[in-house]
Amino acid sequence: MYASLRATQRFSISIPVRIRRLDEFNSVEYSVETSNLSAGGMYVSGDFQLELDTPVRAYLTMPEQIFGKPILRWRCESRVVHLHPSGAPRTKLGVGLSFYTYTVLALETQTWQTRFISSAGTARDENAQD
Question: Domain 3-126 belongs to what architecture?
């Protein structure tokens, strides 16, 4: 249907995504999965209310096969470009999102520093003479 308008290849892939409306203060965040995904957009279905041109922020892990680089977390600013009722009996809304900006987020790492101090060493330190 929209294949002639696409600038990037679409992949039928299911990955978890968190989405939130940007046009409402304190909007609800939804956890959904993609039906298809590209470097330029995605299609998701869920129990939410969105309208055409609604600005949406999405958080996802972009697979290497789509972007060509092993990049982990993305934050995508997007807008709703098409809507399709889906599910039985039309209980969900299928939403096509087009990315207009994205940010590659740094991998959150935790550095654990463990220091073992023997009780004898601690006692010596506390009782050390200057």
Answer: Beta Barrel (2.40)
